[in-house]
Design a protein that fits this description.
GO terms for molecular function: phosphoric diester hydrolase activity. Helix content is 29%, strand content 23%. By secondary structure, it is an alpha/beta fold. The mean pLDDT is 92.
Length: 598
């Protein structure tokens, strides 16, 4: 059993760990500024920070760019289709490194789940870290909102088995459906996560609850806990009708009179935000069916560390299920709506994900008193009908393998033609019309990489980032982002050595960044030549040993193997330019290993 604790939402590597792959989902479009300036540096354990000072700024982007290049093809974000035109980003290059997919490839869908999964390598061990929360990949989610989440880190076994994978229950079919909805490339990426789930059993005290668009009501998954009472805290309440509320209550096994909705009054500070929404019609419908609306006190605190005067509003989605002897807490992405849950024969429209676990936490149950007009009145706001018309242009994807830009789209309007405008680095553009939902543009220019594709059908548009699928050798031609080309080569080599156990990068050693032009050598003054030569040789062969270990690990992953072999080629070229016997031996050793693995 557990009670909530207060923590920073930014994930960090385990001690001595390095990120091997990451999967993240969001409802809102991922914020490039958040990822570049905060989330990715934290995940990567970056030692440099974004600064206005030229040297530190260059080191920050050099470290970030080389780390992202090494992870190319293993950073995946899946979101809902954008509801408006993409905003101009300060870092449009990010989506060459991070693959961003949207759902809707097979049928209309909303991606509302907030799942983060990180595959860590710590020495010769591997770990899987999972987060299930209410947190979008936006700056406002991190800075302006309170979130609820669940997190676990588990050691991975050596083998994957079907029986182990089955312990994860509804998480696996959720992931399979999510991947399929985001397209073939995304499905392949998500399958790698599913494979990892077969290497470690789900914690015995946790049950996953998932909504999949078009499938059965997810509310039925709560019935197994035999709740007699339900307490709900979510910032968005759907447009409940008599029929859907009755069906949802039957799915869960709790009568409407035993459902307690924690809500804010018109005087609550959160009413001044646009985050909490309950229509007057829905409020009246809930009350007429017996649902108990209870007023959240302004001074309500979720943990002891939740300080007074905190200006952030709650974006958390919490459901406390009370049975005769136990309390179960559901931490989820799902607001209380038919779109999120489904109800009876009505299927959910959203991808949602949550976890249920036994909890001693009773604060949610105790929070709130019945509304007492005129002192406390439920905060209600009129909004557009849930059934407002949807765009016929439901899904699109653009990808580039270094030779061709592949364009795909799906629309419920089969008659109106679809055109696509591709934008490249340097602001050049190419336009093409789709035939049967697909088109291709030949493109081999690594200096002007395709950045985005805007699909237009009549008055409707859908803009997506181009997914970069180039093999490692071709992707390595991509200029380091935000870095002066005059220092980029030296930075690449310095961070390459550091990644394989070489010296920590010293900006003073980089010509043009602070250091003078000092040709790298593996040598020393004559007086102490033998000692220094031995130290240099030892350091150089430590780099070789770590590269060999990485090569052995990558054998089962073809794309990663190409990446590590490319690193070996670059290390060999680097040492070939150095002087001294140790450098020559390293070149021979690397050459022999590369030829052996060819």
């Amino acid at each position: 059993m557990t009670t909530p604790s207060w923590k920073d939402v930014l994930p960090t590597p385990p001690p001595g760990g390095r990120l091997h792959e990451a999967w993240m989902t969001s409802f809102e479009q991922p914020d490039a500024g958040l990822l570049v300036e905060h989330l990715l540096p934290s995940l990567l354990g970056a030692s440099h920070s974004l600064s206005q000072e030229v040297q530190e700024r260059t080191m920050f982007f050099g470290e970030l760019g080389t780390a992202l290049e090494a992870l190319h093809g293993r950073l995946t974000v899946i979101s809902s289709p954008p509801r408006a035109a993409r905003e101009d980003s300060q870092y449009p290059w990010l989506w060459c490194y991070v693959s961003h997919f949207i759902v809707g490839a097979a049928a209309r869908a909303v991606q509302h789940a907030k799942l983060w999964a990180f595959h860590w390598k710590v020495d010769d061990k591997e770990h899987l870290e999972l987060h299930v929360s209410s947190t979008n990949l936006t700056a406002s989610a991190f800075k302006g909102q309170l979130q609820a989440g669940w997190q676990v880190t588990l050691p991975l076994g050596d083998r994957t088995t079907q029986s182990t994978r089955q312990t994860w229950g509804d998480l696996v079919p959720f992931l399979e459906s999510l991947g399929a909805s985001a397209g073939e490339v995304a499905a392949t990426r998500v399958q790698r996560l599913i494979t990892l789930l077969g290497r470690v059993e789900c914690p015995a005290d946790v049950t996953f609850v998932a909504s999949i668009p078009g499938q059965g009501s997810a509310a039925r998954q709560l019935k197994q806990f035999e709740p007699s009472e339900l307490h709900v805290l979510t910032p968005t309440i759907g447009e409940w009708k008599d029929r859907t509320l009755s069906a949802w209550s039957a799915d869960v096994g709790v009568v409407p009179g035993k459902i307690h909705l924690k809500w804010i009054s018109e005087k609550h500070p959160w009413a001044a935000t646009s985050g909490w929404t309950l229509s007057t019609a829905a409020s009246e419908k809930l009350e007429s069916n017996g649902v108990q609306l209870e007023c959240l006190p302004i001074e309500a605190r979720f943990t002891e560390q939740h300080r007074d005067g905190d200006p952030r509003w709650s974006h958390a989605k919490l459901y406390l299920l009370r049975s005769r002897r136990k309390r179960w807490l559901l931490v989820t992405s799902a607001n209380w709506s038919v779109a999120a849950w489904g109800a009876g024969k009505t299927s959910p429209r959203n991808f949602e994900l949550g976890v249920v676990f036994e909890s001693e936490w009773t604060d949610l149950e105790a929070l709130g008193e019945p509304f007492d007009s005129p002192d406390t009145i439920p905060f209600c706001v009129d909004r557009a009908d849930d059934e407002q018309p949807n765009s016929a242009l439901e899904w699109a994807e653009a990808s580039w393998d270094g030779k061709r830009i592949e364009l795909r789209a799906r629309s419920s309007d089969l008659d109106t033609p679809i055109t696509t405008l591709v934008t490249f680095t340097g602001s050049s553009e190419e336009s093409i019309s789709l035939v049967d939902g697909a088109a291709a543009i030949p493109w081999k220019d690594p200096e002007h990489t395709p950045i985005s594709a805007r699909f237009t059908q009549g008055a409707e548009t859908l803009e997506v980032a181009v997914v970069d699928l180039r093999p490692p050798a071709e992707f390595a031609q991509t200029p380091l982002p935000e870095v002066d080309p005059a220092v980029a080569k030296a930075l690449r080599e310095a961070f390459l050595l550091q990644r394989y156990g070489g010296p920590v990068v010293d900006p003073e050693s980089i010509p043009g960044l602070g250091g003078g032009h000092r040709p790298p050598t593996v040598g020393a003054p004559a007086a102490d030549y033998s000692v220094q030569a031995w130290l240099d040789a030892r350091a150089a062969f430590n780099v070789v040993d770590q590269w060999r270990a990485a090569l052995a690990e990558a054998v089962i992953e073809p794309v990663l193997l190409k990446r590590v072999r490319l690193d070996g080629e670059e290390l060999r070229a680097l040492y070939a330019r150095r002087e001294g016997p140790a450098a020559g031996l390293v070149v021979e050793e690397l050459g022999w290993r590369l030829d052996e693995e060819a």
